[in-house]
Design a protein that fits this description.
By secondary structure, the chain is an alpha/beta fold. The protein contains ten helices and six strands, in the order βαβαβααβαβααβααα. A six-stranded parallel sheet has the order 3-2-1-4-5-6, with helices on both faces.
């Protein structure tokens, strides 16, 4: 990074493709947590998913288009997971957070943003119990979300660590937060299928410049 920051919102994902729900999630947590930087980390090859449709270069290009007018804080697109994929290494969130903590230092507040579906699967992540040693975990709830659907161990730890957005602004790691008001329910699979079928309702979920890029490169 060009300058030290005291708080970072980390937002990872496949972004295959990036859509308005991603922008809404990042915007909402930036409003709540007031980080100095939004660090977007596109996945290399997510170990729990099949092969991605768009290439790494295409996904990074679409992210730059989607967030080109971002003004809530500094923005950085971090390609560390893509680099690891090129080295035949899978994308584990715990390794990404370790690298970020080593880069940013012990006092920086690192907030990891994720969707509710990721929280429900958190118990399957590599070393999930150690994530709290490196970051605060923040979930944007989808319609119908219930913490009770998560694995018992995750649910218990989450409740024990739950705190307010105000507290997280000065907490380097270890806290949890659920934002219940983000009413975006976008399935990436359905989105790709809708784009292939030229469904106008689905196409409206993608930023205009990203949609133009998809059409120019015939990605879906």
């Amino acid at each position: 990074m060009s300058a030290a920051v005291s708080s970072v919102l980390v937002f990872g994902g496949s972004f295959d493709p990036v859509h308005r729900g991603h922008i809404a999630l990042a915007s909402r947590f930036c409003e709540l947590l007031q980080p100095q930087q939004l660090r977007i980390i596109p996945a290399g090859q997510p170990w729990q998913k099949s092969a991605l449709t768009a290439t790494s270069e295409q996904r990074v290009s679409m992210l730059r288009l989607a967030f080109e007018n971002w003004s809530l804080c500094q923005l950085e697109i971090d390609e560390q997971e893509i680099v690891r994929a090129c080295q035949q290494q899978p994308s584990y969130t715990i390794e990404t957070l370790r690298q970020l903590r080593a880069e940013l230092g012990p006092d920086t507040c690192i907030h990891l943003a994720m969707g509710a579906d990721q929280l429900h699967n958190l118990h399957t992540w590599r070393e999930w119990e150690h994530l709290f040693s490196y970051a605060n975990l923040c979930v944007a709830a989808r319609p119908g979300f219930s913490l009770d659907l998560s694995a018992g161990a995750v649910r218990d730890v989450w409740k024990q660590r739950a705190t307010s957005a105000e507290r997280l602004r000065s907490l380097p790691c270890g806290g949890t937060l659920i934002e219940p008001d983000l009413d975006w329910d976008v399935s990436a699979t359905q989105l790709r299928e809708g784009l292939m079928r030229h469904n106008p309702a689905i196409r409206s979920l993608v930023p205009v410049k990203v949609l133009d890029y998809l059409q120019q490169h015939t990605i879906y």
